[in-house]
Amino acid sequence: MNIGSDLLKKFSKSFTQQVNLSNYSWFNLGGNAEFFFKPSNKDQLIKFLAEAKKNNLKITILGAGSNTLFRDNGVKGVVIKLGSNFSFIKLINKEIIEVGAATLDRKVANFAKDNNLSNFEFLSCIPGSIGGAVIMNSGCYENDISKILLSIQVIDTINLEEKEVKKKDIKFLYRGTNLSKNFIIVSAKLKGSISDKEKIEKKQSDFIKKKNYLNQVKLKHVEALLKI
């Protein structure tokens, strides 16, 4: 039995072969993933990682697919995309929320707004999911994820264990971090501050308007260059 057949037998509905990655990129470009795995929970993910390690499979983690390009000849090994159970938002207390790594940034911004939590407004302008936002230290308009992050839960692909990584143990860079490439982020704890909902709505609306305006300016600039 080859690797693909063996993994298909063990992980059935969560595992597929030769998946067109253009369906998972916002640019709708790219070839096939040799193997594609969408874990339904952390336990299944850890079991799969053990199999991947045993078979020396290269692992590529895929988030929401924003700003992601795949080569036409595809991706060797396995592409892992966290399933719907990794998309959730929980209110831990009045100021802290726990968010699944697959949760879209704008959903986090809206949840925070509905719960009178400020400092999350900038996320409404960030494409992608929270896992990618942490890895890239995503931000805009003098805000970034490092300012609201408390900790992350990760699965280490080397020792196949889940552990918590505190903010103090992460070095944040401009659009990056020093997080190990062996970590798969599964959730994050974020902290905001209590504020008036109307103020939050206005701040979020202003950010979105500013982003839309800047996008229009960039588009006009590109169109002008193409005419030269």
Into how many domains do the coordinates divide?
2
DSSP summary, beta strand count: 15
Helix content: 25-40%
Number of helices: 5
CATH topology of the largest domain: Uridine Diphospho-n-acetylenolpyruvylglucosamine Reductase, domain 3
Q: Which strand order do you get reading across the main beta sheet?
A: 5-6-14-10-11
Structural class: alpha+beta
Question: Residue-averaged pLDDT, rounded?
Answer: 90
Tell me what the structure shows:
This protein has helices at about 5-10, 40-55, 105-115, 130-135, 195-225, and strands at about 15-20, 30-35, 60, 75-80, 90, 95-100, 115-120, 140, 145, 150-155, 160-165, 170-175, 175, 185-190, 195. The chain is of the alpha+beta class. The strands form five sheets. A five-stranded antiparallel β-sheet has the order 5-6-14-10-11, covered by helices on one side. It starts with a helix and ends with a helix. The mean pLDDT is about 90.
Describe the secondary structure blueprint for this structure.
Elements: H1 3-11, E1 15-20, E2 32-37, H2 42-54, E3 59-62, E4 75-81, E5 89-91, E6 96-100, H3 105-114, E7 117-118, H4 130-136, E8 139-140, E9 143-144, E10 149-156, E11 161-166, E12 172-173, E13 176-177, E14 183-191, E15 193-194, H5 197-227
Parallel strand pairs: 2-4, 3-4
Antiparallel strand pairs: 1-2, 5-6, 6-14, 7-15, 8-9, 10-11, 10-14, 12-13
What is the gist of this entry?
The chain is 31% helix and 29% strand. It has helices at 3-11, 42-54, 105-114, 130-136, 197-227, and strands at 15-20, 32-37, 59-62, 75-81, 89-91, 96-100, 117-118, 139-140, 143-144, 149-156, 161-166, 172-173, 176-177, 183-191, 193-194.
